[in-house]
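Sample intake sheet
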Amino acid sequence: MILTVTLNTSLDQTLFVNCLQPGDTNRVSHSEMDAGGKGINLSRVAHSLGASTVALGFAGGPTGEFLRSLLHQDGVQHRLTQTTESTRTNINIENEDGSPPTTLNARGPLVSPREWEEFLQVFQEEVCGAQWVCLCGSIPPGLERTAYLELAKLANGKSILIDTDGEPLVAALTAKPDLIKPNRKEAERLLGRPVSDAATDVVSLREITGGRFAIISLGKEGAVLASDEGVFKGISPSVEAVSSIGSGDSMLGAFLSRVEAGDPPALAFQWGLAAGAATATTDGKQIGHPSVIELLFDRAIVRQVG
Protein backbone atom coordinates (compact mmCIF):
# COMPACT_ATOMS: atom_id res chain seq x y z
CA MET A 1 0.00 0.00 0.00
CA ILE A 2 1.13 3.55 -0.80
CA LEU A 3 0.44 5.92 2.09
CA THR A 4 0.58 9.60 1.18
CA VAL A 5 0.81 12.52 3.60
CA THR A 6 -0.11 16.03 2.46
CA LEU A 7 0.08 18.27 5.52
CA ASN A 8 -0.93 21.41 3.62
CA THR A 9 -3.75 20.23 1.35
CA SER A 10 -5.55 22.68 -0.91
CA LEU A 11 -8.15 23.30 -3.50
CA ASP A 12 -6.44 24.42 -6.70
CA GLN A 13 -8.25 26.96 -8.83
CA THR A 14 -6.80 27.31 -12.32
CA LEU A 15 -7.52 30.46 -14.32
CA PHE A 16 -6.81 30.37 -18.05
CA VAL A 17 -5.80 33.64 -19.71
CA ASN A 18 -4.42 34.43 -23.15
CA CYS A 19 -1.26 36.05 -21.77
CA LEU A 20 -0.96 37.33 -18.21
CA GLN A 21 -0.37 41.08 -18.06
CA PRO A 22 0.70 42.12 -14.53
CA GLY A 23 -0.73 45.45 -13.41
CA ASP A 24 -3.50 45.32 -15.99
CA THR A 25 -6.98 43.80 -16.39
CA ASN A 26 -6.82 40.19 -17.55
CA ARG A 27 -9.77 38.37 -19.09
CA VAL A 28 -10.23 34.78 -17.87
CA SER A 29 -11.43 32.50 -20.66
CA HIS A 30 -12.40 29.74 -18.22
CA SER A 31 -11.50 28.37 -14.80
CA GLU A 32 -11.32 24.97 -13.12
CA MET A 33 -11.31 23.77 -9.50
CA ASP A 34 -9.57 20.59 -8.38
CA ALA A 35 -8.24 18.74 -5.35
CA GLY A 36 -4.71 19.95 -4.63
CA GLY A 37 -1.56 18.90 -2.85
CA LYS A 38 1.34 16.74 -4.00
CA GLY A 39 0.40 13.64 -2.01
CA ILE A 40 -3.27 13.99 -2.91
CA ASN A 41 -2.45 13.89 -6.62
CA LEU A 42 0.03 11.06 -6.13
CA SER A 43 -2.69 8.96 -4.48
CA ARG A 44 -5.18 9.80 -7.24
CA VAL A 45 -2.84 8.56 -9.97
CA ALA A 46 -1.73 5.48 -8.01
CA HIS A 47 -5.37 4.58 -7.37
CA SER A 48 -6.30 5.07 -11.03
CA LEU A 49 -3.56 2.60 -11.99
CA GLY A 50 -4.82 -0.04 -9.57
CA ALA A 51 -2.47 0.50 -6.63
CA SER A 52 -3.73 0.40 -3.05
CA THR A 53 -3.36 3.84 -1.49
CA VAL A 54 -4.58 5.93 1.44
CA ALA A 55 -4.29 9.72 1.48
CA LEU A 56 -3.70 11.44 4.83
CA GLY A 57 -3.58 15.14 5.66
CA PHE A 58 -5.70 17.93 7.07
CA ALA A 59 -8.96 19.45 5.89
CA GLY A 60 -11.22 22.11 7.38
CA GLY A 61 -14.19 24.33 6.59
CA PRO A 62 -16.23 24.35 3.36
CA THR A 63 -13.13 24.00 1.20
CA GLY A 64 -12.09 20.96 3.22
CA GLU A 65 -15.50 19.35 2.72
CA PHE A 66 -15.25 20.02 -1.01
CA LEU A 67 -11.79 18.43 -1.04
CA ARG A 68 -13.17 15.32 0.66
CA SER A 69 -16.02 15.14 -1.85
CA LEU A 70 -13.59 15.28 -4.79
CA LEU A 71 -11.52 12.42 -3.35
CA HIS A 72 -14.70 10.43 -2.73
CA GLN A 73 -15.75 10.97 -6.35
CA ASP A 74 -12.37 9.63 -7.50
CA GLY A 75 -12.70 6.60 -5.21
CA VAL A 76 -9.50 7.47 -3.35
CA GLN A 77 -9.43 6.16 0.21
CA HIS A 78 -8.60 9.02 2.57
CA ARG A 79 -8.50 10.00 6.23
CA LEU A 80 -8.17 13.76 6.50
CA THR A 81 -7.89 15.15 10.01
CA GLN A 82 -10.34 17.97 10.71
CA THR A 83 -8.93 21.46 11.33
CA THR A 84 -10.73 24.44 12.81
CA GLU A 85 -9.42 26.74 10.09
CA SER A 86 -10.43 26.22 6.47
CA THR A 87 -8.35 24.45 3.87
CA ARG A 88 -6.54 26.94 1.64
CA THR A 89 -7.26 27.71 -2.02
CA ASN A 90 -4.30 28.09 -4.37
CA ILE A 91 -4.52 30.07 -7.61
CA ASN A 92 -2.78 28.89 -10.78
CA ILE A 93 -2.78 31.19 -13.81
CA GLU A 94 -2.19 29.30 -17.04
CA ASN A 95 -1.19 31.23 -20.15
CA GLU A 96 -2.87 29.94 -23.28
CA ASP A 97 0.09 31.19 -25.31
CA GLY A 98 2.18 28.37 -23.80
CA SER A 99 4.37 30.48 -21.52
CA PRO A 100 5.05 29.22 -17.97
CA PRO A 101 2.18 29.42 -15.46
CA THR A 102 2.01 31.75 -12.47
CA THR A 103 1.18 30.11 -9.15
CA LEU A 104 -0.12 31.87 -6.03
CA ASN A 105 0.08 29.50 -3.06
CA ALA A 106 -1.83 30.46 0.07
CA ARG A 107 -0.30 30.10 3.52
CA GLY A 108 -2.57 27.31 4.73
CA PRO A 109 -4.59 26.85 7.93
CA LEU A 110 -3.08 26.93 11.39
CA VAL A 111 -2.76 23.38 12.76
CA SER A 112 -3.20 23.22 16.53
CA PRO A 113 -1.26 20.86 18.83
CA ARG A 114 -4.47 18.86 19.42
CA GLU A 115 -5.03 18.48 15.65
CA TRP A 116 -1.43 17.35 15.18
CA GLU A 117 -1.85 14.69 17.88
CA GLU A 118 -5.05 13.47 16.22
CA PHE A 119 -3.21 13.25 12.90
CA LEU A 120 -0.31 11.33 14.47
CA GLN A 121 -2.73 8.75 15.83
CA VAL A 122 -4.23 8.22 12.37
CA PHE A 123 -0.76 8.07 10.81
CA GLN A 124 0.43 5.39 13.21
CA GLU A 125 -2.71 3.35 12.53
CA GLU A 126 -2.22 3.47 8.76
CA VAL A 127 1.56 3.24 8.46
CA CYS A 128 1.61 -0.40 9.59
CA GLY A 129 0.08 -1.54 6.28
CA ALA A 130 2.20 0.68 4.03
CA GLN A 131 5.05 -0.33 1.76
CA TRP A 132 5.76 3.27 0.70
CA VAL A 133 5.22 6.36 2.86
CA CYS A 134 5.14 9.55 0.80
CA LEU A 135 5.68 12.84 2.65
CA CYS A 136 4.72 15.60 0.27
CA GLY A 137 4.37 19.35 -0.04
CA SER A 138 4.75 22.33 2.25
CA ILE A 139 4.23 22.41 6.01
CA PRO A 140 1.31 24.52 7.30
CA PRO A 141 1.51 27.08 10.12
CA GLY A 142 1.56 25.61 13.61
CA LEU A 143 3.82 22.68 12.74
CA GLU A 144 7.59 22.46 13.10
CA ARG A 145 9.78 22.51 9.98
CA THR A 146 10.92 19.05 11.11
CA ALA A 147 7.41 17.53 10.86
CA TYR A 148 8.32 15.27 7.94
CA LEU A 149 11.45 14.10 9.74
CA GLU A 150 9.29 13.16 12.72
CA LEU A 151 6.93 11.20 10.47
CA ALA A 152 9.82 9.48 8.68
CA LYS A 153 11.17 8.30 12.02
CA LEU A 154 7.73 6.94 12.98
CA ALA A 155 7.69 5.08 9.64
CA ASN A 156 10.94 3.29 10.44
CA GLY A 157 11.37 0.25 8.19
CA LYS A 158 9.11 1.57 5.42
CA SER A 159 10.26 2.97 2.08
CA ILE A 160 10.14 6.76 2.31
CA LEU A 161 9.55 9.36 -0.39
CA ILE A 162 10.23 13.00 0.49
CA ASP A 163 8.81 15.52 -1.98
CA THR A 164 9.15 18.95 -0.42
CA ASP A 165 11.61 21.83 -0.55
CA GLY A 166 13.69 24.16 1.60
CA GLU A 167 14.21 23.64 5.32
CA PRO A 168 11.67 20.76 5.63
CA LEU A 169 13.53 18.84 2.92
CA VAL A 170 16.97 19.47 4.40
CA ALA A 171 15.73 18.29 7.81
CA ALA A 172 14.07 15.19 6.36
CA LEU A 173 17.19 14.15 4.45
CA THR A 174 18.72 12.99 7.73
CA ALA A 175 16.16 10.15 7.64
CA LYS A 176 17.86 8.85 4.45
CA PRO A 177 14.71 8.72 2.26
CA ASP A 178 14.47 6.04 -0.41
CA LEU A 179 13.34 8.55 -3.06
CA ILE A 180 13.51 12.29 -3.63
CA LYS A 181 12.26 14.09 -6.75
CA PRO A 182 13.34 17.73 -6.90
CA ASN A 183 12.84 19.83 -9.99
CA ARG A 184 15.84 21.61 -11.49
CA LYS A 185 15.66 24.66 -9.19
CA GLU A 186 15.12 22.54 -6.07
CA ALA A 187 18.04 20.29 -7.06
CA GLU A 188 20.27 23.33 -7.48
CA ARG A 189 19.39 24.51 -3.97
CA LEU A 190 20.25 21.09 -2.57
CA LEU A 191 23.52 20.83 -4.48
CA GLY A 192 24.47 24.48 -3.97
CA ARG A 193 25.32 24.87 -7.65
CA PRO A 194 23.64 24.91 -11.08
CA VAL A 195 22.49 21.63 -12.62
CA SER A 196 24.73 21.48 -15.69
CA ASP A 197 24.88 17.71 -16.32
CA ALA A 198 21.64 16.23 -15.01
CA ALA A 199 22.83 12.63 -15.34
CA THR A 200 25.83 13.35 -13.13
CA ASP A 201 23.96 15.63 -10.75
CA VAL A 202 21.21 13.09 -10.05
CA VAL A 203 23.91 10.66 -8.90
CA SER A 204 25.22 13.35 -6.55
CA LEU A 205 21.73 13.81 -5.11
CA ARG A 206 21.39 10.07 -4.54
CA GLU A 207 24.73 10.08 -2.74
CA ILE A 208 23.43 12.86 -0.45
CA THR A 209 20.41 10.78 0.58
CA GLY A 210 21.90 7.30 0.40
CA GLY A 211 18.50 6.11 -0.84
CA ARG A 212 17.34 3.72 -3.55
CA PHE A 213 16.29 6.36 -6.07
CA ALA A 214 16.75 10.01 -6.96
CA ILE A 215 14.90 11.77 -9.76
CA ILE A 216 15.41 15.27 -11.14
CA SER A 217 12.41 16.46 -13.14
CA LEU A 218 13.35 18.71 -16.03
CA GLY A 219 9.96 19.88 -17.30
CA LYS A 220 9.57 19.50 -21.05
CA GLU A 221 13.06 18.00 -21.19
CA GLY A 222 11.87 14.97 -19.24
CA ALA A 223 13.69 13.67 -16.17
CA VAL A 224 16.69 11.68 -15.01
CA LEU A 225 16.69 8.74 -12.59
CA ALA A 226 19.52 7.30 -10.50
CA SER A 227 19.10 3.80 -9.07
CA ASP A 228 21.06 0.67 -8.18
CA GLU A 229 20.44 -0.54 -11.74
CA GLY A 230 22.01 2.57 -13.28
CA VAL A 231 21.28 6.10 -14.39
CA PHE A 232 18.46 6.66 -16.88
CA LYS A 233 17.50 9.62 -19.02
CA GLY A 234 13.76 9.90 -19.67
CA ILE A 235 12.23 11.82 -22.53
CA SER A 236 8.56 12.60 -22.06
CA PRO A 237 6.06 11.88 -24.85
CA SER A 238 5.43 14.87 -27.06
CA VAL A 239 1.93 16.12 -26.27
CA GLU A 240 -0.07 19.32 -26.61
CA ALA A 241 0.18 20.50 -23.01
CA VAL A 242 -2.84 22.28 -21.57
CA SER A 243 -1.76 22.56 -17.92
CA SER A 244 1.44 21.50 -16.18
CA ILE A 245 -0.25 21.29 -12.76
CA GLY A 246 0.15 17.90 -11.11
CA SER A 247 2.41 16.39 -13.77
CA GLY A 248 5.30 15.76 -11.39
CA ASP A 249 2.98 14.21 -8.80
CA SER A 250 1.46 12.03 -11.52
CA MET A 251 4.91 10.81 -12.51
CA LEU A 252 5.60 9.78 -8.92
CA GLY A 253 2.22 8.09 -8.54
CA ALA A 254 2.78 5.93 -11.61
CA PHE A 255 6.44 5.27 -10.80
CA LEU A 256 5.73 4.07 -7.27
CA SER A 257 2.69 2.02 -8.25
CA ARG A 258 4.84 0.12 -10.75
CA VAL A 259 7.83 -0.22 -8.37
CA GLU A 260 5.47 -1.60 -5.75
CA ALA A 261 4.13 -4.05 -8.36
CA GLY A 262 7.68 -5.31 -8.97
CA ASP A 263 8.66 -3.55 -12.20
CA PRO A 264 12.36 -2.72 -12.69
CA PRO A 265 13.14 0.99 -12.19
CA ALA A 266 13.57 1.79 -15.89
CA LEU A 267 10.15 0.36 -16.76
CA ALA A 268 8.49 2.09 -13.80
CA PHE A 269 10.20 5.32 -14.90
CA GLN A 270 8.70 4.94 -18.38
CA TRP A 271 5.22 4.61 -16.83
CA GLY A 272 5.95 7.71 -14.76
CA LEU A 273 6.89 9.78 -17.80
CA ALA A 274 3.72 8.67 -19.57
CA ALA A 275 1.57 9.60 -16.56
CA GLY A 276 3.16 13.04 -16.25
CA ALA A 277 2.53 13.74 -19.93
CA ALA A 278 -1.04 12.45 -19.68
CA THR A 279 -1.82 14.87 -16.86
CA ALA A 280 -0.27 17.74 -18.83
CA THR A 281 -2.94 17.21 -21.51
CA THR A 282 -5.77 17.79 -19.02
CA ASP A 283 -7.39 21.11 -18.22
CA GLY A 284 -6.26 21.59 -14.63
CA LYS A 285 -9.19 19.89 -12.90
CA GLN A 286 -8.16 16.34 -13.78
CA ILE A 287 -5.26 13.94 -13.75
CA GLY A 288 -4.11 11.70 -16.57
CA HIS A 289 -6.63 8.99 -17.37
CA PRO A 290 -5.25 5.41 -17.33
CA SER A 291 -6.22 4.90 -20.98
CA VAL A 292 -4.20 7.99 -21.98
CA ILE A 293 -1.26 6.88 -19.83
CA GLU A 294 -1.28 3.50 -21.57
CA LEU A 295 -1.48 5.20 -24.97
CA LEU A 296 1.53 7.40 -24.19
CA PHE A 297 3.62 4.64 -22.59
CA ASP A 298 5.29 3.50 -25.82
CA ARG A 299 6.05 7.12 -26.72
CA ALA A 300 8.01 7.70 -23.52
CA ILE A 301 11.70 7.06 -24.12
CA VAL A 302 14.04 5.78 -21.41
CA ARG A 303 17.69 5.09 -22.11
CA GLN A 304 20.51 4.16 -19.78
CA VAL A 305 23.24 6.78 -19.58
CA GLY A 306 25.27 5.53 -16.65
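Comment: The longest strand covers residues 28-36. The two ends are 31 Å apart (CA to CA).
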